[in-house]
Amino acid sequence: MRKWRLAAYGRFMAAAFAANVKSVIEYRVNFLVQTFGMMLNNAAFAAFWAVLIGRTGAVGGYGFQDVMFVWGLVSTAFGLAHILAGNVRQLGRIIMEGSLDVYLLQPKDALLNVLLSKTDVGAWGDLLYGFVVLGLLPGLSLERLALFCALAVPAAVIFASAFAMAESLAFFMGNSQGIAGALSEFLLSFSLYPEGVFGKGLRWVLYSLVPSGFVAFVPLRVFRSMDWPLVPALWGVAIVYAVLARAFFGLGLKRYESGNRMDTRV
Amino acid sequence: MAAIVAENLSKRFILRVRPQGRFAALRALVRPERRIVDAVKGVNFSVDEGEVVAFLGPNGAGKSTTIKMLTGILTPSGGGARVLGLDPARERKRLAWSIGSVFGQKSQLWFHLPPADSFRLLGAVYEVEPKLLRERTGALVERFGLAELMDVPVRKLSLGQRIRCEIAASLIHAPRVLFLDEPTIGLDVVARKEIRRLIEELNKRDGVTVFLTSHDMGDIEKVCKRAVIIHHGEVVVDESMKTLKHRALSRKHVGVRYARPTSMDLPGLSPLKRTEQSARYEVDTNRHALRDVVRALAERGELVDITVEDEPLENVIEQIYAARSGAEAAAVTRGGSA
User: How far, rounded to the nearest angstrom, does the alpha carbon of residue A98 sit from its chain's CA centroid?
Assistant: First the structure.
């Protein structure tokens, strides 16, 4: 029975993904501009780091290749999260405006349903950028590519879960866009800087409330030493964050107040 | 068997009030003011399987809030509901397999995609086997006349075409109960008529229970067998359309037009509208025999036309709202002076 339910959820996710891709392809030029624009934007930051490390040497224990790996992984994970769960950064607004109704009327998990029902066009650029960076790093092999993917998936789940939790504050605060935006920015920004630059106190935060540790710092350690046994632990952490996000959303759902806004699914 | 039961169903919202005056925003930050709004106050009603019931009320009466509690979108603050034997608040996902819903203001179709893609996705949402999905989609396309619309992006459809697709999409999983919240809002006369026909057919052919809110009296008169009227969060009328219409039968609208300017004064009757050669009267047949009124008007001058019509149902419902508001105002006044 459980297997069958999982298969049904798999079919639902595949159908949502297909619908989202079709929806994006409706506007091909916009899709291409956003994809390559995002890659160019990320490349500009890589150039900045190249200059900085070229002048100062390693920063916080990170050499240029480490920085590039982290940028690549975070970019791919961030992109994957926003391609599959494109509504994740809109969730607070959706809750606040009472636009969850359509998802609540369907027999699928409401959080999964709302997250999967949109894709973020620009995120395709982020996803691809990570692979381009990996390709440019020395020593590319099938194993390194497989490990990169195995690390990017849990990081994407953690990104999506953390963003979803921050956005679900809207159930309790009404307009939570400020705090949700700040938490999201913290997570992204802290993930892109070397772990060594943060003090001990802050590091606790970076392995809990703002889980940069699990999307960037630990994956870098794993990648440096090709430490496969740690990968399942990261998947476990990702599942814990996903369960927490689902529970927090469910708690908030009891306070949901709906609304009378005109809505369309885009 | 009852398809829908509401027992003392209540919903209370706590709203933040924006205070007025100097430093109001600062005060609100320190001590926010809140106001309690009882949107639904312990409503009771039940709907049998296969019934088509109109759920009426003026704006803000609590119609949509009630529907949202019946479908599991909102958690009641008090009382409870059963829909097809399930508690919507606790068994929302289980219930969703057996109910369909169309909210005129909220679309479940993908805006940039053709309806065919949304139907496929909804098939996956409701876990309809691919073969069955093809059969059902085919049948719905035929019944709702969607053949030429299935490949057109939803954003390019007219409102009427979109609502037809919305209703068809809500039936992809063959629901037993259909909740329709203002399904004809913004539609032209032709599209409204078409939607009414489809709702009637769904009920008659497939035995689907329909719970409909609408401001369009045409929808209600043509489609529904019973009306539940809600006002200020309370059920004020729950009776068959026949009984409701009977209220209208004791009032007639008499229109008259003469060839020349004529004096049309009738003792005890004042016209609703009047020109030099025409007038329109509302006649309470319990007080004035209709034949006497018609005879008196015919004797006034050279008649060009005379019409006798039932009072529009809209007016009857308006009077129910007004009477209820008047009674509440009186109760408040009595309470205040006591």
Answer: 24
The model's pLDDT over B3-56, given as tens digits with 9 standing for 90+, comes to 999 999 999 988 877 777 777 777 777 777 788 889 999 999 999 999 999 998
- Report pTM: 0.81
* Helix ranges restricted to H, chain A: 2-25, 28-56, 64-84, 91-96, 101-104, 110-116, 123-136, 142-168, 170-173, 177-191, 200-206, 212, 218-225, 231-253
Distance CA A214, CA A232 (A): 12
B111 close contact with A: CB closer than 8 A? yes
Enumerate the residues of chain B whose CB falls inside 8 A of the CB of residue A15.
Answer: 120-121, 123-125
Which residue reads 């930051």 in tokens? A45
Please tell me the distance from the alpha carbon of residue B75 to that of residue B13, in angstroms, as a whole number: 11
- Terminus-to-terminus CA distance in chain A, angstroms? 33
What residues of B are in contact with residue A263 (Cβ under 8 Å)? 105-107
Q: How many helices (H) does chain B have, and how many strands (E)?
A: 11, 14
B8, containing H or E segment: strand B2-17
Does B101 contact A at CB distance below 8 Å?
Answer: yes
Burial class of residue A263 (count of CB atoms within 10 Å of its CB; 0-12, 13-18, 19+)? buried
Nearest chain A residue to B94 by CA distance is: A107
What's the ipTM? Answer: 0.82
Contact A192, A216 (CB under 8 A): yes
| Calpha distance B81→B6 (Å, rounded) | 4
Q: Does B103 touch chain A (CB under 8 A)?
A: yes
User: How do residues B69-116 score in pLDDT, each as one tens digit?
Assistant: 999 999 999 999 999 999 999 999 999 999 999 987 778 898 888 999
Strand partners, B5: B46, B82
Give B18's contacts (C-beta < 8 A, 6+ positions apart): B24, B28
Window from A193-197, B145-149, B264-268, B286-290 with minimum mean pLDDT: B264-268
Sorted by sequence, the CB contacts under 8 Å of residue A214 that are 6+ apart come out as: A154, A155, A158, A207, A234, A237, A238, A241
Residue A151: phi and psi, rounded to 5, are -90, -30
| CB A102, CB A229: distance < 8 Å | no
Q: What are the two backbone dihedrals, phi and then psi, of residue B114, each rounded to the nearest 5 degrees?
A: -70, 155
